[in-house]
User: Fold these one by one.
Assistant:
Number 1:
Amino acid sequence: MKNNLKFILAAFILTAFFTSCEEELIIYTPESSYAQLGSSNPITMSENLSSGTQIKVLLGTADPSNGGTFNFNVTGDTSRFSVTPSNGVIEFQGGAIESMITITPIDNSVSDGNANLTVSLTGDNIGPGGTGLSLTSVDITIVDDDCPTLIDETETWISQYQDSRAAATEVQLTKLGENQWYCPTTWGYNGVANFTGVAGYAGLYPFDVVITLNPADNTITVEGTSSWAVGGTGSYDPCTNTFSLAVLDDELFSGGGIDNGWTLTGQ
């Protein structure tokens, strides 16, 4: 009997000892629902990414049936991107625990460098548990995909009319004003002689033009300096340093002219 009492007493003491050594398990239950980002890792995307990038926002709640709304803002150059939803409010429909913020870059034709922006949840009850300590903002970099416009009239340019009879011709541009240059020939100094097979036209009717560049979108206007030399509209590609026209309009020849394409490329 004494041995049994000793065993029971020892078991009781051991149980009390181990129970006192256990850590108390605390389960944190926030008083209200909260919103947090799915990730705060920095995001990089190209300016020409038409689909944009989506930022996942998660709803933390014991009962998602009531949904919820939370606010956010985006800081940065607003001319470089658009935001959905545009009102700065994230809505969780009843039963949903995920929502998205979409940042879509605006692809322009200007070499304006990379754009940096930050998407941040704002107001109360943000971050895990509504503490606001983490997963409340994310940085995004939009990488510029345009080349700088560097038109150097002192370098050699190759004028190429899109006709098998027209030879590539080296020319020098003359700067006339801001974003405007004179080009001494488009289809070559001997273009008309080559087109007609008449050597006497060599050096005549060179189809010289004035090029005007719109730097906002890199479109160009090309105007001939003679009444028969109409010209046309086209574009400038700063990455290849090339002016291009799909149709260079002329009225020199009967039947409306040749009207082929033309390129002018800096070397």
Note: Residues 235 and 266 are 14 Å apart (CA to CA).
Number 2:
Amino acid sequence: MTVVYAERGGLITTIFVEPGDTVTAGQPLLVVEDSATQLAAEEAKLTYSSAKISLAAARISQRQAKAILGRQSELNRRGVVASHHLEDAETAFLMASNSVEQAEAAVAKARLAVQVAEDRVSDLTVRAPIAGTVTRLSAHVGGAVLDRTDAIHDGVGLLTIARLDSLAIDADVAEKAIIGLETNLEGEAVLDAFPDRPFTFALLRVAPEVNAAKGTVRLRLTPIDPPPGIRPGMAVRVRIALPPPNSQSTNHQGANLQ
């Protein structure tokens, strides 16, 4: 299961999904409104437009200075004007060229600021990080949301997406019952919701640590051809038949789909 958070805080204005909906990776799930972020984007665009206008003006001045320099150079070659007039024209052209370089740098900086601001605005649209099914939706239109960092810290997600075709079963068994358990061992599971639809599972992993407080070990089991309609969090009873010489079975009543 994947818990979805908003990158930026704000107020929810639109929700596109409901529990049970199937979504694709990158699909919009909801939209958050944050006036400060949107205002910053508009200001960045205005600054960019102003920078481009300044660059255009600087280039016009540079072309004019270049033309004057050309005339002064020709007149100086003919001996019509003194050398200091040519030097003044050269200085003016260099200053105009420097102004163009500064204006180009300002445009590049403003363009980058627009990209950053637009990325932040894009973050206001929360998208599905994975393909799957929406299993929980706690967000509502008009509700305030925290940004990702604060939401993760407080454990407040907007919704949960699960891949129902790849659910696993977590089961805690007494540590004395793990003798003989090996990966790929198969067993039988029965969901409390569908007691008449038992299915097979394979032992994927035995946790390397024991829960000292409970005296149990966590098993991760992979369902094999489970019945339709399974959901994360469903209670399931499991039974693992151990091979010889440990010909017995390990039962657990409190496993859950994850």
Note: The mean pLDDT is 87.
Number 3:
Amino acid sequence: MEEKKAYILKHLSELYLKYGIKSITMDDVAAEFGISKKTVYQYFKGKEDLVNQVMEHVVKTCAFNLNDKELGNVIDRHFALRDHLLNVMKYINNNIEYDLKKLYPRLYKRFHDDKRNRIYTSTLENITEGIQEGWYRPGLDAEIVAKLQLGKMFYVFNPEYEIFSEQDMMNIEVFDKVTELFMYSVCTEKGLKYYTEQLNKIKNDIKN
């Protein structure tokens, strides 16, 4: 039973990311997996429980650890995040958070708060480590910079504010510009030189 449930969660996560939450009903779930609605309710208490568990699976799948030292130094990890987003953008629907907020506000608040805390904590650790290793400027107030970066990411990439069109938000160049502004504001000469070199390598790879 658990194996079947894991299979359902995995594939429902893909459907939610592609089409959003609103458009998928319990009837759709039953039809998609060739089971009855009664069987669906053996795995989930109802639509809200299903959405909750699918979103937990989505978070595990899409979350990125900015402080995974196996990905390189603090600047390398921003480029690794870029690669991660390029992969996620292939199948994500920006309406998923909007649907969650509108249809399940309690769940939205919990996932939103968790996302905010996770991004803030990882950004703060990245900045602190970068200062210690000489990639970022000494004297930076790491907490304030992390909060500014968090606010920038949440505001710019929130479709409700309509800063960019949905099509623009799925363009990696927007993320690149946000990252560039961050790097130019925090990097030492050493850090900026390294960031520029890595960015130029990516641009050259794209051209070739």
Note: The chain has eleven helices and no strands.
